[in-house]
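User: Hey, my collaborator sent me this sequence without any context and asked if I could get a structure. I don't really work with proteins. Can you help?
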Amino acid sequence: MKFRELSIGGAFEITPQQHGDPRGMFMEWYRFDHLAEVVGHPLKLAQANLSVSQRGVVRGIHFADVPRGQAKYVTCVRGAVLDVIVDIRVGSPTFGRWEGVRLDDLDRRAVYLPEGMGHGFCALTDDATLSYICSETYNPAAEHAVHPLDPDLDIDWPADVPLLSARDDAAPSLADATASGLLPDYAACIEFTESLRVT
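Assistant: No problem. I've predicted the 3D structure and written it out in structure-token form, which is a compact way to encode the shape of the chain:
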């Protein structure tokens, strides 16, 4: 299992080692001890989600209030997606920057994003299926979104006509979310992460 830190500090791409023979394939797609060694604390497993999307569907950019936030460990078990992590932490040196990682059922990579970051993806195939584990359970009152087609983010979505949910289509721009105080504070996110190291 190889870890590569992305350009947005605290987010990682994980490449598993696949073991194949004529019968099929086996791999470890998540190891709590390996992740904890890299990020400095274990990932609390509170909820596991499965998402199925048709080609051209864009979901996101979603995030949760910090504290408590919601860290995610995401992999694609069928098809392919462009997984996108956005730094929406106000005061971060990489605020407003995004990075995309292709997740598919060939290389079987995963991504880890800590609390306070925005997350979204675009389905590159029909029935693209994401499996992801989260550090906190879903809390509608603490869940928010930034519009995925915001020109200030300028995300290069690989879809001719991105298909959005009504919720995502009604989400505010990054500038509006910032002005309204909706976005997580970078210092608060770092402080929260440090508190996880202690405990």
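In plain terms: The helical segments are 32-39, 166-169, 174-179, 186-198. You can pass these tokens on to your collaborator as they are.
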